[in-house]
Amino acid sequence: MSISKKFIIRSLSVLALYLYLITTHAAVLTDFDGNNKTLDDYTGNNKWTVVVLWASWCKISNKVIHEYVDFDTVSNDYNTAIMGISMDGKDKKAEALSFIKKHDIEFTNLIGEYDDVADMFSRLTGSKWEGTPAFLVYSPTGELAVADQGGVPAKAIMEFIQQRNVSP
């Protein structure tokens, strides 16, 4: 096989992978054991899914996360699951774990590289990434229902869900 054919085959393989990642809105996310995960693994399970994108060093994330920890304790009343995505990346995994422990977070959390998760947010929402915290709310069928950035009160998300009749 000539070099040009090898180059074309490799280029097409890379392009195919890139298109797959874009069309599935996948980011390189892992659980804290290092297993690859996607948002699709957690959404569309006949429950609303609230995804909190946070960073351990973010002052606003540290300020509002307790609202989502509290929301998690009543989330079944809203037919809702809460999950988080740390944007600390693998080099700051210890800081992310410290954040989880400090705030007594019991809901599922994934971790990804900051730029990858920011790009995922922009692809999913069509909005320019502005920073943490950010929120994605998925309907029980797995459709992205709303997204926002900044210190969104958990109460506002609860009201949004209540207004849409949370029954599956």
CATH class reads Alpha Beta
The CATH topology is: Glutaredoxin
- Cα shape: globular
Number of domains: 1
Major β-sheet strand ordering: 2-1-5-4-3-6-7
How would you characterize the overall build of this protein?
This protein has helices at 3-23, 59-74, 93-102, 114-125, 154-163, and strands at 29-30, 36-37, 48-54, 80-86, 108-112, 134-138, 144-149. It has a single domain, classed as Glutaredoxin (3-Layer(aba) Sandwich). It has a 7-stranded mixed beta sheet, with helices on both faces. Mean pLDDT is 88; it is low at 20-25. It is globular and about 60 Å long. With 168 residues, the chain is of the alpha/beta class. 41% of the residues lie in helices and 20% in strands.
For this entry, give a set of tags.
168 residues, alpha/beta, Glutaredoxin, seven-stranded mixed sheet, 5 helices, globular
Summarize this entry quickly.
The protein is an alpha/beta fold. The protein has helices spanning 3-23, 59-74, 93-102, 114-125, 154-163; strands at 29-30, 36-37, 48-54, 80-86, 108-112, 134-138, 144-149.
Secondary structure layout plus pairing:
Elements: H1 3-23, E1 29-30, E2 36-37, E3 48-54, H2 59-74, E4 80-86, H3 93-102, E5 108-112, H4 114-125, E6 134-138, E7 144-149, H5 154-163
